[in-house]
Amino acid sequence: MTRPSPAEEAGPARRVRAVGVGRAHAKAIVLGEHAVVYGAPALAVPVPQLAVTASAGWSAGEPGDSDGDQVTFTMTGSPSRPIVTQAFAGLGLLTGHFTRAFGAGALRHLDVIIDGGIPHGRGLGSSAAYARAVVLALADLYDRQLSDREVFALVQRAEDVAHGRSSGVDATAVGARGPIWFQAGTAQPVRVGCEALFVIADSGTAGRTKDAVQQLRERLAARPGAEHDFVTAATDLTHAGRDALARGETDRLGGYLTHYHRLLSGAGLSTTGIDALVAAALDAGSLGAKITGGGLGGCMLALVPPVKAGQVTRRLHQAGAVQTWVVPLREIADHGH
């Protein structure tokens, strides 16, 4: 008996392409890490130069293959085995959710290739970006038009596998065109009134978002009122940071970043390496600097006047940064409109 083609399996009313392609990018949290999990707002920016592309296509089935879903994931580059295993566990569930949600039929002999330049475990949204790229690749493969809300819901399912309780800010920001204000599942564009840059520095040590979230939860539960105090302080800084960004008050915005770093560091979420990068950025002329992302490793973000970008970047590498990226605020704000 001849095996039906993927197009035939999908049904006569459904057109299936030979290959589907989806794309996403990294993100950085400017203010609001961790507190966003408790319903507080977060301010985030896309990092478009760190992109990921997923390609989904059909491979020939081998004789004796079972009739069940068979999705093969391949990741380019040389990520570590634990990272690949964790990423593929969430993405495997994601493909199943896609078929059930949109009646796509069986995903027999589907090959998904993920080509990404987002370093893993750095608080830059790699898992959410992979998930978004795969969702869009599957939608393209099946010629389905998904709403933003449908894409978000699918990516969020994968994020909950990767991080436990996920706020949704990563699932949103990896598809954002410009800076966003995120709270309780809703995102709004943010006005940018300054020409400053964000410089992101990779400490070289992978963060552990899931562990960091659990560690903070236990710490806040250990003292009455601690959760209220943390969330209130974070919320005030995030609101003030958004206002300063809109008004172009870069000195004030920088101060809020550094204050937020102290808040996270005081909660045990920073590391010696991250603290050294923050100190180096400030010494080199940054207006403010902080950890970005889940913590316990990962990246640092600094607000830098354009004329100081080279100086700050050099100092960060001298202080141990293994990679740096520059995100021009005005450029991404203009791109988002």
UniProtKB/TrEMBL annotation:
Its main location: cytoplasm. Pathway: Isoprenoid biosynthesis; isopentenyl diphosphate biosynthesis via mevalonate pathway; isopentenyl diphosphate from (R)-mevalonate: step 1/3. InterPro entries: GHMP_kinase_C_dom, GHMP_kinase_C_sf, GHMP_kinase_N_dom, GHMP_knse_ATP-bd_CS, Mev_gal_kin, Ribosomal_Su5_D2-typ_SF, Ribsml_uS5_D2-typ_fold_subgr. One of its GO terms (cellular component) is cytosol. The keyword ATP-binding applies. PROSITE patterns: GHMP_KINASES_ATP. It is found in: Cytoplasm. Residues 99-174 form the GHMP kinase N-terminal domain. Keywords: ATP-binding, Cytoplasm, Kinase, Lipid biosynthesis, Lipid metabolism, Magnesium, Nucleotide-binding, Transferase. GO terms for biological process: isopentenyl diphosphate biosynthetic process, mevalonate pathway. Belongs to the GHMP kinase family. Mevalonate kinase subfamily. This is mevalonate kinase.
